[in-house]
What we know:
By secondary structure, the chain is α/β, with parallel strands linked by helices. It is built from 9 helices and 18 strands. The chain has a 9-stranded mixed β-sheet with strand order 5-6-15-14-7-10-12-11-13, with helices on both faces. A 4-stranded antiparallel β-sheet has the order 1-2-3-4.
Amino acid sequence: MTKIENNADGTERRGTERTEKTEGRKIEANSGVKPLLQSPAFEDSKHHIKIYQGDCLEILAAIPESSVDLIFADPPYFLSNGGITCHAGKMVSVHKGDWDKSRGADANHDFNRSWLAACQRVLKPDGSIWVSGTAHVIHSVGFAMQQLGFKLLNDISWVKPNPPPNLSCRYFTHATETIIWAAKNAKSRHTFNYKLMKETNRGKQMKSVWEIRPPEAWEKKFGKHPTQKPVALLERILLASSHEGELVLDPFCGSGTTLLAAFRLHRQALGCELSADFLTLSIRRICSNLVQVDLSLACFQFSLDPLPDPVDRSKCASRMSAQLQLVQQERRFYFIGRAKREVIFSVLADSLDEARQKFRASGRSDSDALFIIKTETSIYLA
Ligand SMILES: C[S@@+](CC[C@H](N)C(=O)[O-])C[C@H]1O[C@@H](n2cnc3c(N)ncnc32)[C@H](O)[C@@H]1O
């Protein structure tokens, strides 16, 4: 195994050469020059949520030392290596993405040690970190934590109540993932909201075995991530070990589950993600939580002596659909301001591209809008 030492800022030192190791490549850093934090791919300054696209090692290196209260990390499992698994009752090969391929036990461990060191540097003195993983990765994570001087607090067994069957019939059915909880170092006085956890557990001390269902259908409404964690799991972690207003970081944020849980529980959130597709998914999930659109429908009779109440047909549409004819359809796009949380522009357009062009033509720039809401109205008549 390569011998690695750590600089004070968590980057690695091999002999006299100072390097920051990233997935599969090395970036030479000029000693003494602090890397600059790129601008986030998504930022909601009102709720203090930021997502950076890129390699978490580069991003973590640019985050100030001792600035983060809590970290949840769900790193690559290194298990997409041609094996088989059961998905929706079918035999499928395990391919979660190139990011999940093993590079060999030593390289995988070097990678785990690098990002854990970078996380340790940014944690506040009393901060703590949770890392989830299967057997493919979690032993290396635990060993790296011991090498780096983290203080191990608990290893949680997350039990999945209804796991997919083991198709080979040569092993027990895999039904758990381990989540290691550790404080920054031996001196840390970590946060544990003991009373709250006991209350959540109907007055009994909470054990380190947690039975939590995998993500529900509503959590996958905007798309799927192959290793998406349930919001309920992240909410328990955040409630157990952080307070409102504190900063939570997820270096491998995937579909944004940690950021969503942080938003729902009034924590600040910072995420890093390599993939543009997963970044888009997490932005969709977060923005959908920033919006509530109430729709109501009422039909008024046009006569000299109108009925006292309008005729509400909103519940009848599905029952009548066989005889209905589409008579009017429109798409409206609402641009929500980045600086002020209000509708700064709205326009009827056939497509998002057309709406964007009209937005720009109105003299505004793309960065003025935090996100865009599309509503579609279709009127059918019998
Ligand atoms: C196990 S998944 C995390 C899933 C996440 N917990 C969720 O609920 O959606 C790991 C994620 O890390 C990303 N990733 C892999 N290597 C990375 C790196 N060096 N920096 C940032 N993200 C990385 C992958 O694209 C993947 O989405």
